Amino acid sequence: MTPPLNYNAFRPHPWHGLSVGQAPPSLLRAFIEITPSDSMKYEIDKLSGYMRLDRPQRSSSLSPTPYGFVPRTYCGAHVAALSPTSVKGDEDPLDICVIAEQPVDRGEVLLDARVVGGDHSVRVHFRRRLMALCREPIAARTLQRFRRHR
């Protein structure tokens, strides 16, 4: 007998079943898919919620920070409208890079993160990526020092 692909009875789906965070849009929850030490690219399987191997990472495209997505978000038409050259979003959750004080060497973890900026890229579809700090007192103090010295 083949087990069902949906396992929500055991744990919530990372994209649809987890909270977006404590105080959106400034304080969000990040589901980490890839760490800086990963030589393979992993993505959440949209149907099952399990992590799946997508492809090997090229050395020039290794993520410098823990990289993942914000649960319960979607890059669709409303997000694509932020870019005049885009027709539609990439139809994935909102991407997030989290700068952490200590190395995060494991994927499929949740981090609370304070948003400090963002960027976007347009290939075929519009993709929005947030930049955030791991919600730790030391990281927050580092940002405050950086702002004072600018």
Structure description:
This protein has 150 residues and is mainly beta. Helix content is 11%, strand content 33%. The protein has a domain at 32-133: Inorganic Pyrophosphatase. It has helices at residues 77-80, 137-149, and strands at residues 27-34, 40-44, 51-56, 67-69, 95-99, 109-122, 126-134. Strands 1-4-5-7-6 form a 5-stranded mixed beta barrel. Strands 2-3 form a two-stranded antiparallel ribbon. The chain starts with 26 loop residues before the first strand and ends with a helix.
Secondary structure layout plus pairing:
Blueprint lengths: L26 E8 L5 E5 L6 E6 L10 E3 L7 H4 L14 E5 L9 E14 L3 E9 L2 H13 L1
Parallel strand pairs: 5-7
Antiparallel strand pairs: 1-4, 1-6, 2-3, 4-5, 6-7
CATH fold title of the domain at 32-133 = Inorganic Pyrophosphatase
Radius of gyration: 16 Å
Shape: globular
Helix content: 10-25%
Q: How much of the polypeptide forms β-strand, as a percent range?
A: 25-35%
Distance linking N and C termini: 62 Å
Alpha-beta classification: mainly beta
Annotation field: number of helices: 2
Instruction: Report the order of strands and helices.
Output: EEEEHEEEH
Largest sheet: 5 strands, mixed, barrel
In CATH's first tier, which class of the domain at 32-133 applies?
A: Alpha Beta
- Secondary structure: number of strands: 7
Average pLDDT over all residues? 80
The H-level CATH homologous superfamily of the domain at 32-133, spelled out, is Inorganic pyrophosphatase
Looking across the biggest beta sheet, what order are the strands in?
1-4-5-7-6
The CATH architecture designation of the domain at 32-133 is Alpha-Beta Complex
